[in-house]
Amino acid sequence: ANTFNMKFRYLKAYVVNDEEYAYTEAEMSQFCPDGLSDDEFNAFLDMFINLRQSYVSICREMRKS
Prior knowledge:
Blueprint lengths: L1 H6 L3 E7 L4 E7 L9 H27 L1
Antiparallel strand pairs: 1-2
């Protein structure tokens, strides 16, 4: 999660610990006091998907090492 957070700004990764499991999670927020148009939402969603794919790739690389 720290490696990812150093490289990317808009999607934040963190580790969650509960009683049985520890896992990573990622979240993204957007300040939009006037709402989002369909085009803005689609652009935001595309960015989220791309960043999430990068996050998964980094997690896989870290597991290999």
